[in-house]
């Protein structure tokens, strides 16, 4: 177990209650054991600083290697939160206009863009001129009309033909989409003349000294990464990305990603123009769930928290000010982060276990008294849940 040294013995939570760090560690250990979470790392933020950081369980269950805070995780959709920040920086500098159709930045129609890997292209959109309406803001707030991925429909059903199409008029509905993020990435790379990894290195990773973070697999990550685990504990072989993907190729450690989250908290505290853009509500979300068949079912269940989306981050409203959240989910890896900038508090959870989301609800409550995250919408069903 690795930890962040801090002289304060207690954590003060959103509602003013406190918990000792020793008690929190005991509680997390118990949750990890009860839900058979193979590995978990947690950071708690207070006053825009890291107050608590520990790792629990294993980097690899078979070898019994203990998980450490310096282990490299597959970051999954945490990639999108970093990309959202990067685009907000470019928008602040007027390098990109968030509301200008992306088509206007390209030299050819979007369906004619060339890709070495043809399946990444947009040629199937030819004839549906709605692609001409898609903007950077739509891509980052998941309102492009694209499915999450071309081999998956909005109900999260596998579509082996892998054809990309626009499922609703851009800007009119919320539907989480990695495809939209990738289109924006290609636009950003075209506008700047730089690849995503180069831009992220220059503007995020190097300035924040995130030395073990990259959108592309690096040799320095060898023997320093943790394996993902299926619900049964079966080890998932490491999959190493050879090209940068804004939607989900990033590798990072909880130490590095905590630096990024702390930076966002600090910028928000000084009313940075970047975070004003990042956390401007763009689209109210009124669906039963974020993914699956129930994502097509209208619902007002989350109006009480004002569920919304900014630039690559979800948003909600609480008595303690707004919250900004981002989840990450891939085979063997389950992550969540939420910050409450008005109070300088937040929590970051990273796990290499497919069982981890079953303890997220209780983790959020015990660490910072976050009872506002829409856990049913996220499908964070507790391991001992008996409700409807």
TrEMBL record:
Coiled coil: none
Gene3D superfamilies hit by this protein: DD-peptidase/beta-lactamase superfamily
InterPro entries (UniProt xref): Beta-lactam-related, Beta-lactam/transpept-like, Diverse_Enzym_Activities
Residue intervals of the Beta-lactamase-related domain: 28-356
Official protein name in the record: Beta-lactamase family protein
A family per Pfam: Beta-lactamase
């Amino acid at each position: 177990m690795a930890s962040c040294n801090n002289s304060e013995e207690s954590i003060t939570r959103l509602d003013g209650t406190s918990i000792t760090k020793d008690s929190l560690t005991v509680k997390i250990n118990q949750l990890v054991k009860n839900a058979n979470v193979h590995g978990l790392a947690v950071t708690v933020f207070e006053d825009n600083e890291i107050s608590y950081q520990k790792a629990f369980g294993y980097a690899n269950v078979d070898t019994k290697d203990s998980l450490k805070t310096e282990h490299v995780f597959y970051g999954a959709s945490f990639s999108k939160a970093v990309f959202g920040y990067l685009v907000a920086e470019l928008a602040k500098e007027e390098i990109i206009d968030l509301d200008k159709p992306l088509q206007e930045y390209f030299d050819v129609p979007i369906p004619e863009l060339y890709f070495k890997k043809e399946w990444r292209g947009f040629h199937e959109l030819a004839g549906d001129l709605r692609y001409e309406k898609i903007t950077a803001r739509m891509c980052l707030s998941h309102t492009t009309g694209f499915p999450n991925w071309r081999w998956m429909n909005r109900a999260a059903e596998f579509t082996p033909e892998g054809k990309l199409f626009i499922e609703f008029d851009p800007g009119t509905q919320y539907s989480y989409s990695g495809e939209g993020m990738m289109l924006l990435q290609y636009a950003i790379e075209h506008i700047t003349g730089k690849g995503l990894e180069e831009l992220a290195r220059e503007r995020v990773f190097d300035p924040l000294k995130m030395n073990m973070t990259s959108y592309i697999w690096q040799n320095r990550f060898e023997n320093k990464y943790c394996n993902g685990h299926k619900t049964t504990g079966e080890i998932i072989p490491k999959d190493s990305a050879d090209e940068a993907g804004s939607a989900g190729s990033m590798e990072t450690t909880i130490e590095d990603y905590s630096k990024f989250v702390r930076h966002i908290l600090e910028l928000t505290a000084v009313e940075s123009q970047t975070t004003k853009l990042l956390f401007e509500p763009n689209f109210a979300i009124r669906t039963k769930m974020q993914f699956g068949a129930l994502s097509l079912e209208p619902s007002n269940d989350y109006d009480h928290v004002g569920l919304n989306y900014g630039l690559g981050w979800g948003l909600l409203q609480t008595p303690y000010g707004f919250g900004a959240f981002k989840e990450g989910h891939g085979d063997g890896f389950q992550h969540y982060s939420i910050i409450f900038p008005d109070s300088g508090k937040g929590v970051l959870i990273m796990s290499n276990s497919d069982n981890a989301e079953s303890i997220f609800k209780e983790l959020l409550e015990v660490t910072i008294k976050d009872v506002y995250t829409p856990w049913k919408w996220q499908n964070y069903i507790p391991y001992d849940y008996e409700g409807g």
